[in-house]
Amino acid sequence: MKEQRKKQLLWQVPFLVLLIVGTVLIIRQQQSIPYQHHTGFIFGTVYNVTYQSDHDLQQEIETELKKVDAEFSMFNDTSTVSRLNRGEHPVLSSMFLDVYKLARQVSEKTGGAFDITVAPLVNAWGFGFRNEQMPDSRQVDSLRQLVGYQHLALKGQELLMNCPGMMLDFSAIAKGYGVDAVTQLLSRHDVSNFMVEIGGEVTTRGVSPKRLPWRIGVTKPTDDSLQVSNEYQTVLNVTDRSMATSGNYRNFYYKGGRKYAHTIDPRTGYPVQHSLLSATVLASDCATADAYATSFMVMGMDGARRILEQEKGLMAYLIYTDQQGKLAVWFSPSLEDKMQ
User: Does residue 40 have a pLDDT over 50?
Assistant: First the structure.
């Protein structure tokens, strides 16, 4: 019996040695593969892509981003959104349909706090692709008649906008979807270590060039319309997750001694006025994180926490002002081990 065990061990040892040597060689090979970094301009903001690969994929990355821009950019006269806003009836691509269906799903789950038809109100308050004058209450009431995702309907591959004058605005989900599109491209090329970031919306996989988890900062929400502040409220270890942040501390203006922030509540027609300053959301994909980050800024603290109780796949880091006017933080319990 003992002799039989000895023989088994003698046969197993070479296999174990080969396994160890093979593992070491694979690790060395992975470490020798360089990290590429590309940066550029898309969707009116800057993108950064860092990934480990022997192949330069910049051209393919830019092609993918241009596809997303061609669907959702309000500044591109030939985009699908621009054509819809002019009253045309283009045949919708699978990309457009995917994003539209996700947007509608988030609208339904948030009771209309997220709404891609909010464009007329965003423009009227001076934060959209058409900068207009501050509206009075009568104008707001009139524009609200053009807002409501319930007035949209799909008929095959055509989108019906049932109120003349409606306009679509995908800016609160398109950047996140752009991140997802590049993520899918890198995955198709079997890239396992990367970070994709567009205007602050991020997805990571694997490890950073330092062989550590990716660390992403959450900006401290101080009034910064010039976007020069780099002070972080916290740093999160974000690995194999997507993260998006929405806040009212960069895009705003003062008029008559009052601050008007860019987050417009589609349900009231007015810029939000509550204690929530910044909402960072982590989800399995970046388009979802992007849409919910905007939704939370509309809903405020109580509404955001209510959604988080229902949507177990989401995590959030919320920064707000307390009753004394000081910065305070609330975060999902599952985020605690990810904070630096």
Answer: yes
